[in-house]
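Q: Structure tokens for this one, please.
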Amino acid sequence: MTEAHLGRLLPACLHQAISDVMPDRLEYYEEWLPPDGLRDGSIGIAPVSAVLGFLRTEGNAYRDVMFRAGTLAATWTVATLAPFQRRFGASLPLTFRAKFALRLTRRIVKDVLTTSSASTRLRRGTATISISSSLFCSVRQPQSRPLCDFYAALAVETLRSFDVAAESRLESCRAMQDGPCVVILTIGGAAHASEPAQAA
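A: Here is the predicted structure, written as tokens:
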């Protein structure tokens, strides 16, 4: 059985998102996301799962933090691409830019947690992303709303980074029922890097 490993990206994004959205609570969450652990990459699945569990008790702040964290994950990953990769992706026609961004989204999902994976499909202006083994949505009791806002924001921002405008909605979530988390993206044409990301 493959052992799950957490990359450095998610803890760093969560820490920054909490600092941005609810700075008065950052000290509390640094019990599980300590700066030293962020620097040396020693934060594992258990403390991050604890953070997600406590965030779910914070009401609407959970969605806001997840949206911000997903946006940061996309922004920071695109920034680490080699310049020629960014130029190549940005130079493609719209449909191929979207496919390029979706391919990168799949890579980021795997970077977040090694046992997670994503499949994507783009057809007639609609993209579908199916995520298996979502860390955000591993809960003991069924939830009343989807918990995979991180992935919706991640996909929207990755597309926007390559000048593809998109809006997202969560069609299904592992936290609500058996099966994968599914994000539906409506591609709206070209975007500009200065435009804010939009998620439903």
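A few notes: The chain has one domain: 9-190. The first strand starts at residue 117 and ends at 123.
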